[in-house]
Here is the input.
Amino acid sequence: MTIALTTIRLARIGLRRECLGFVMAKRRGFFAELQHQSQQAEKQRRQQAAATQRAHVAAQREFERARLAAERARAAAVRGSVAQQKAAEREAARLHVEARLAEVEELNADLAAQYAEIDGILASTLEVDDYVDLAALKVTTIDHPPFEPGELAVETAAVPTAQVWYPPVWQEPAAPAGLGAALGGKKRHEKVVAEARAAFEATRAEWSRFDQESRDVNQRNLALRGELEATRQRKLAEAGAKYRSECEAREAQAAAHNAALDSLINALAFDVESAIDEYVGIVLANSVYPEVFPVEYNHAFALQGRELTLSTTVPDPSKIPAVKEHKYVKARDEITAAALPVREQKDRYANAVWQVAVRTLHEIFEADRAGKIHSIALTVGVETVAAATGLPVTVPLVIVAADRETFTKFDLSNVIPKATLEHLGAALSKSPFDLTPADTSPGVRASRSV
Here is the structure.
């Protein structure tokens, strides 16, 4: 049984840039950018484990091994005898060829990986659930770095205890006794005492001066140590305050992040138009394409009619690899690139464009578990420069409208993307590679059949 076809006017879904530019900027929202960066990192992780990546690494390792072996052989050729030099030169030449062949193998492995990614644009998204759990984006753990004050944590060395220098003690020379005292000894004793007293006073004055200098030095050292310790404690306190401030800033940032997510989640629950549009941006930012085939989006959701108007921009055909394989020409000692036949270039590019269209519809509908988006008006195009005017233009390659009820019944693992788009009544370019605009004269229809 076939339900009536719904004709959708092109003016409704054409995504005229001059009208929608103010609501469909390419700049990602905050959460969308977070998701995009996260998915880029995840893609790199998956690539590390992929067979094509392992082949690439193996080829690169072989190239490096052969290159180093060739360098060693050339060095041996310089050191050896004439016969040895010739043998070493032959070995160096052989190893050089091996290195160049390994380089070719690496280039071809990289090329094969790129083509595999482009050819698998649709298949790669079918392996994952495109739904984004916003609550899972909340920051639940804040990793504060440890407080490391460094030398500020070390107390200033104490001033050594001052050495005690005891004062000299006066000891009066013994007085003469007996006959010595009677024969003028008393006068001589007085002289000795006077001389001893003078010497003692001089010694005592020297001690007093030295003792005072020692005390002064010790006091200065104590004062300096006190200043250094006070400075250390002040800087330590400042460093601690700065650390606590940074921790508080991280916590505040996390709290603001979570509050914004709560606000978005609540707004989604109440069908706020801007929230649904922001969620779409997060979903699309989660979609990571091959590096050689980057994709950008513009979108705007209208609550009235629950339709998402979406523009997807794919790279110009000239940006896509066009090499069939690399070869080493021994006679010229150079690596050449054989061009991919134009027919293969056209087929691969067109198939990639059809895949992008179907993939985009799939990702939105699958991610929108709540069914807030009922239909999608999609344009897939290329930004280029018009040959006639020299001005930037967008060439539409696919214009299609799809409703949730129809599209979600498809088994995309078994479809041919172009046939899917034709089934949906899409306007398709006859030659995307030649940037032939999609023929929109018949109109675009969304077919729903059971």
